[in-house]
Design brief:
mainly alpha; globular
Length: about 200
């Protein structure tokens, strides 16, 4: 039980039931990611979007395999032109949006989902300390390709860190703390309910 993720609680002996539940979870995860991308919480110096929170939470709750299928599904939906990303709009969407300044961060979403899923599959989602460390590693996995892509697009002589990292750190600290409390808290409730 220690190395299970939350999505494992929906396992079934019947393969058809299991696959149906997985399809529903992937669709639900894509919807959660799309809705979270559009939620903005006012904060200084920039508003917080809940995208990274949802990406990290899906990875931690779904594990590496189901999390990867979900985040790739989300990317496919976005590539097909659906308005599912934080900065996308009726004017900028699909592959053109994905190849813009947010492209590297979207690659980071996939990496972060895999990392969080991998770590959660090893039991990191059950304690605050390990979950906080996993979230920190996941955030780094989002920022690294994001900043590299910004540098590639605009040139390394530009203030890449000031544009693509520093304004978002205060909000990320809040989201990291929220996710690090939420997932282990859910496990405690489940363990308590099971006796």
């Amino acid at each position: 039980m220690q190395n299970r993720v939350l999505s494992d609680l929906l396992e079934s002996e019947d393969k058809l039931t299991l696959r149906s539940r997985q399809v529903i979870m992937v669709a639900s995860g894509i919807l959660i990611l799309a809705v979270a991308a559009k939620i903005q919480v006012p904060m200084w110096p920039v508003p917080i979007t809940m995208s990274t929170f949802a990406v990290l939470a899906v990875g931690a709750a779904y594990g590496a395999q189901l999390g990867l299928v979900t985040i790739l599904g989300y990317m496919i939906v976005g590539a097909l032109g659906m308005d599912v990303f934080a900065g996308s709009s009726a004017q900028t969407f699909g592959l053109s949006y994905m190849m813009g300044s947010s492209g590297g961060y979207l690659v980071g979403y996939v990496l972060a989902t895999l990392i969080l899923g991998f770590l959660s599959n090893r039991g990191w989602g059950r304690s605050f300390g390990w979950m906080a460390l996993a979230m920190l590693i996941g955030n780094a996995a989002i920022y690294l390709p994001g900043l590299v892509w910004l540098g590639h697009l605009y040139g390394w002589d530009r203030p890449i860190l000031a544009w693509g990292l520093m304004p978002f750190l205060p909000g990320d600290v809040v989201k990291l703390a929220l996710a690090a409390v939420l997932l282990p808290g859910l496990w405690k409730l489940i363990d308590h309910a099971r006796g």
